[in-house]
Amino acid sequence: MATGFYSDLHIHSCLSPCADNDMTPADICAMAKLKGLEIIAVTDHNAALNLPYIQTAADYYGLLLIPGMEITTREEVHMLGYFPDVDTALAFGDFLKPHMPKLKNKPDYFGHQWVMNEDGEILREEDTLLMGASDLSLKAAAQAVREFNGVPVPAHINRGAHGLFSNLGFFPEDIEFTAVEVWRALPCSHSAQAGRVVLHSSDAHYLGDILEAEVTLPLPERSVQAFLEYLKHPVKT
Q: Rounded CA gap, 193 and 191, in Å?
């Protein structure tokens, strides 16, 4: 029998240049616990370097961490990738790195990109800009995530300059997405949601933006594998 677990599946850490410096591994997990969450996913832009330390913090606070990443495709569409474990997410980051533009970050303009451990110590600053678009098409990026045993999910498809509808103007049925993330505050095409798992998350860049205990995942158990299987097998309508 499925049980509802309170979740927020789109959170940025201080590795993302657009995220607040207070989005440290420990503070993210402490805030998620304080808000009553049981499952979180940290999905930094085009990198996974903070996930090992977020995993340690999540374990301490009794949270299930879904290792993730927010990938920017050639079309400048944002796509979430969810992976079976931290090592696989890191390996995908290594795969993605040569597909990213060779640009240096400008912290004074874009923000810092801190790699920070579970104790709040800065280990280093990533100097390659993580906010650029990769040279992978949406279809190629989705296929790559699947080859790493992950599940690709178009992010906030109905919101902003990097949403799927804003950039493409249509839903690409040939990629066979089984799940989508929808921004709850805005209308969204029913056809894009029909027959797919629909996720609602915060896209938090600040601690206060992490969701309260309001969105649940109907999983048979609280595990990464159960979550990935849930995404792969949407309810048929």
A: 5
